[in-house]
Amino acid sequence: MDIAVAVFFLVMAAIVIYDSNRLGFHWQENEGPASGYFPFYIAILMSIASVVNLVRALLGRSENPDETFVSKPAFMRVLTVLIPAIIYVAVLNVIGIYVASAIFIFAFMITLGKEPLLKSLIVSIAVPLALFFMFEVWFLVPLPKGPLEAMLGY
Questions:
Q1: Is CB count within 10 Å lower at the N or C end of the chain?
Q2: CB within 8 A of 101, min separation 6: which ones?
Q3: Which residues, including other chains, have CB under 8 Å from residue 9's CB and lie 6 or more apart?
Q4: Do residues 7 and 54 make contact, with C-beta atoms less than 8 angstroms apart?
Q5: Closest to 124 (Cα-Cα) out of 108, 139, 111, 136
Q6: Where are the domains of the chain?
Q7: Is residue 8 a contact partner of residue 14, using CB atoms and an 8 Å limit?
Q8: Where on the phi/psi map is residue 68: left (φ > 0), alpha (ψ -120 to 50), or beta?
Q9: Regions of the chain with pLDDT less than 50
Q10: Strand, coil or helix: what is 78?
């Protein structure tokens, strides 16, 4: 399974590198990074990590070849993160990234982190608010917005 995952991530990194090259990944004078700048370098790091994992998987020998890949409890823990993440991505274009992120952070802090209500509220509002200012105001990078942002004039 390690080999399959390493190859999968290597293919995904290659796709991102190809598309980043199409978009341009250089620093543009008086403009800053081109559209593919950050994805390109993240994909380079991802491909290096994938090659390292692939080599380790090919050279490694399993002590127990009949070992189960994942146990049911471990798979259920993965689903407790995967299902909310899928829902989060699905509602981004409907309610906007900032509101979706606030709900996502709050839900995770309460359910998985067992954090106090007040702390969860503060963090789940502060993080998307900080990201809003960083992307929308300072970097002028528009992200998916919903009805709340439209009501506020963004």
A1: N
A2: 88, 124, 127, 128, 131
A3: 46, 47, 49, 50, 53
A4: yes
A5: 108
A6: 1-69, 70-154
A7: no
A8: beta
A9: none
A10: helix
